[in-house]
Amino acid sequence: MWTNERVAVISPAGHSSRAVDRRILALAVPALGALVAEPLFVLVDSAVVGHLGTAQLAGLSLASTVLVTVVGLCVFLAYATTSAVARRLGAGDGAGALQVGVDGMWLALGLGVVLAVATWASAPWAVGALGAAGDVADHAVTYLRWSAPGLPGMLLVLAATGALRGLQDTRTPLGVAASGAVVNAVLNVVLVYGVGMGIAGSGLGTALTQVAMAAVLTIVVVRGARAAGADVRPAAGGVWRHVRAGTPLLVRTVSLRLAILLTVWVATGLGAVALAGHQVVNAVWGLTAFALDALAIAAQALIGHALGAGDVPGTRALLRRTLQWGVGAGAAIGLLVGGLAPLYVPLFTTDPDVRAAAVTALVVAAVTLPMAGWVFVLDGVLIGAGDGRYLAWAGMGTLAAYAPCALAVHAWAPDGTSGLAWLWAAFAGVFMAARALTTGLRARRTAWMVTGV
């Protein structure tokens, strides 16, 4: 199904940079489409549930926060699988690459079942911990419990997508994600209004869609594995290797989540205007992250494949070229984000104070986006190289560097526009600079360039 010839890395040392650019874009553009398609689930749920009432929408906000956190912490299932599959494929072991992908999917299924049960059982506690009560809490618990059965599907989608990315197939996940977004929209309307299930129907519709997406991706990977002669049964050793490879990436993800939570906490302390403005800036920042993440995904697959093939010169050349793409894309996006901020911010709010705060902070964030492009790509490079342990330590180190700056903003920055600008100078400036320094120093050395399987 996937042959080494189909995904062979074009070495920049022997070919034009234009050929390498085509290889990068062939992976990054479909990956971007899949990344954008996934958030549509939340948007559709919000639009459908929002017409049920304020309490239902507030409950959905809390429940989706819990779900996004649970699934977000498991993103290592995609990252670890991508690098492992790409490395084996680069070494010429197509069957082994697919076996690694299958093992990762078994781990995702087992973990998904455990988390589904835990989420269902702990839903009242989790919602209560977020401060909800009354009707809002009831609706949040309802949504969580009806959507919990979809967690195995959500994690299977992560692992299967990681396997396909490692095989340098980003088009299949795009097609499944786009189709899933459409199916989810139809199911939500039918179950919420047609069947009359209310917010429970929204949770069930999302769960059914995720399970269906997982089934389609599983069929694709299993067919490829059987065609290549790989064993589709779970292998204890293979699953355990995924656990060991994924644990450092989980630590890295936790450090990022803690930095984001700390930023929200500081924004809350700066007053209602700053918090509302932060929501706008954070939403725009999240959109820019999709574009830069797509380049990181391409870097993961290409670097893993090159190292698996033992191509060190090609690896260095790919590093340089993907970094050029990352910095260039960050600069271009930064110009749009900062330059057009006065035009699009009014779409989010009519409050002039919130507008002023959001525009100012967006300009601050826009200046840092070329650096963010560098960070995102280097993150993808090191993940593709399987350098998870370093990323885990670096993640905790950058969090330690950022925390005092965030706390200083909380203690001394004024409320409103100035405070929000200082907060984003700390997050997009100091935090991202710390990540750029730690990953950049690592990339300059050779310890991460471990070749072969």
Which key phrases capture this entry?
453 residues, mainly alpha, globular, disordered N terminus, MATE_fam, transport
Structural summary, described in words:
- It contains 16 helices and no strands.
- It has helices at 17-37, 39-50, 54-73, 76-90, 94-129, 134-147, 151-166, 171-194, 199-228, 236-269, 272-308, 312-339, 341-344, 352-384, 388-412, 417-444.
- It has two domains: 36-234, no CATH class; 245-453, no CATH class.
- Helix 4 crosses helix 10 (236-269), helix 11 (272-308) runs antiparallel to helix 12 (312-339) and helix 11 packs parallel to helix 14.
- 83% of the residues lie in helices and 0% in strands.
- The protein is globular and about 60 Å long.
- It is mainly α and 453 residues long.
State the gist of this model.
It contains 16 helices and no strands. The chain has 453 residues and is an all-alpha fold. Mean pLDDT is 86; it is low at 3-15.
Task: Summarize model confidence as the mean pLDDT.
Answer: 86
**Percent range of helical residues:** over 70%
**Sheet having the most strands:** none
Strand segment count: 0
Strand percentage lies at under 5%
Q: Given the helix and strand composition, which structural class is it?
A: mainly alpha
Pfam families: MatE
GO molecular function: antiporter activity; xenobiotic transmembrane transporter activity
Protein name: MATE family efflux transporter
Subcellular location: Cell membrane
